[in-house]
User: Which sequence fits this backbone?
């Protein structure tokens, strides 16, 4: 399992977490599934966090935003291949909430730990299995030097 | 005339691996019924055992959430597009 992402886009999503610190950031990864075990990100779409009641430890992307991103991606011959969010002052590891609220099987969920305003680690997890037995597996992030 | 339905990536394995499908119906509910009639494997991914849309499944008619229209009785016409998007949320 691997997600390939150009360096510039990788830095973009990490910086998003710094910009929104101490709140969680979130966004969508658009690209293509190269094969069943690999995907390549071609663009990153930063989204607003609609969880205004708990911005520091929850995120939610507006479905209306997802509809538009999915439509634009498909028109461009791409797909939604994953999502990203940050964990302010918390490890770059999926939480029970992350798993409970994840429903895009096969997609990557990138998590960046942001400590005191600086992005530290970014890890990727791929969601596998049907809803009742879904689980995350670690996924390799392959940074590409050129977009 | 058919109505277009955009299928998100996680549901495509249950929809003939297709991104866009065509269905018929006079309402969103009828259109979704036609969808799961064509692709029965989709049913449990969209609906609960009681037949209600699962809580994490969002259905949009063009740019509007059907929850804020007339839900499954929302009328549809041939130029409409139905988009299905599972929710995206989480947090530490």
Assistant:
């Amino acid at each position: 399992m691997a997600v390939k992402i150009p360096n510039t886009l990788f830095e973009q999503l990490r910086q998003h977490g710094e910009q929104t610190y101490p709140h969680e950031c979130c966004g969508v990864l658009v690209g293509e599934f190269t094969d069943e075990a690999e995907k390549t990100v071609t663009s990153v779409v930063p989204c607003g966090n609609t969880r205004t009641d708990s911005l520091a430890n929850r995120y939610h992307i507006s479905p209306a935003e997802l509809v538009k991103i999915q439509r634009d991606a498909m028109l461009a011959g791409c797909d939604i291949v994953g999502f990203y969010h940050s964990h302010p002052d918390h490890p770059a590891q999926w939480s029970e909430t992350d798993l409970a609220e994840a429903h895009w099987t096969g997609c990557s969920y990138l998590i960046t730990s942001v400590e005191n305003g600086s992005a530290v680690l970014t890890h990727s997890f791929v969601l596998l299995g049907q809803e009742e037995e879904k689980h995350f597996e670690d996924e390799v992030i392959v940074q590409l030097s050129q977009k | 005339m058919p109505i277009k339905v955009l299928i998100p990536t996680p549901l495509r394995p249950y929809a003939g691996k297709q991104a866009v499908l065509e269905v018929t119906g006079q309402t969103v509910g009828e259109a979704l019924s036609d969808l799961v009639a064509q692709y029965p494997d989709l049913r449990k991914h969209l609906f609960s055992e009681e037949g209600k849309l699962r809580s994490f499944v969002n259905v949009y008619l063009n740019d509007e959430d059907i929850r804020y229209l007339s839900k499954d009785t929302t009328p549809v016409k041939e130029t409409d597009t139905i988009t299905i998007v599972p929710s995206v949320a989480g947090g530490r």
